[in-house]
């Protein structure tokens, strides 16, 4: 079942046959108050998704040239396209989880059986994990607006800093990337 912060509070209260308590209401108020930051974070990732994923795949190829050699997992072009597609799908589900404040959509729709599928297809998990680690670093830099022109080159795009402290949101986003890494490991 895919939940958001509100559904999760109601389901938890339902399970204990009580109403949503003061602490639950407080958490929901905090979720609402942080709404613009959450939207900015999702926008920062979604607006740069193509670059984030292509940079991650380029990074794993630089680290392991065998991936693009004949017989490598990014050779021929259709395998490279599949790698880019999978990276964008994972990143999209991470943004869904970040938007809703709940990892169930990521777990149910993307991670359930992913490791087994990749094993059956012969996708190297070490390269997949490394690509997700690169996507995590890049995405967190976009959320915190710490990306620089020196790192971005011609494709650099400053998003504009979200107002206030984003450490909790950054930590939440990092946890979703860590879930993907854990599911692949």
UniProtKB/TrEMBL annotation:
Swiss-Prot/TrEMBL keywords: Antenna complex, Bile pigment, Chromophore, Electron transport, Hydrolase, Membrane, Photosynthesis, Phycobilisome, Thylakoid, Transport
GO biological process assignments: photosynthesis
Cellular component aspect of the GO annotation: phycobilisome; plasma membrane-derived thylakoid membrane
Subcellular location(s) per record: Cellular thylakoid membrane
Protein topology in the membrane: Peripheral membrane protein
Modified residue annotations for N4-methylasparagine: 73
Coiled-coil regions, chain positions: none
Family annotation (InterPro entries): Globin-like_sf (IPR009050), Phycobilisome_asu/bsu (IPR012128), Phycobilisome_asu/bsu_sf (IPR038719)
GO molecular function: hydrolase activity
Domain of life (superkingdom): Bacteria
Annotated binding of (2R,3E)-phycocyanobilin, by residue: 36, 40, 73, 78, 83-89, 166
Assigned protein family: Belongs to the phycobiliprotein family.
Protein name according to UniProt: Bleomycin hydrolase
Species whose genome carries this gene: Dendronalium phyllosphericum CENA369
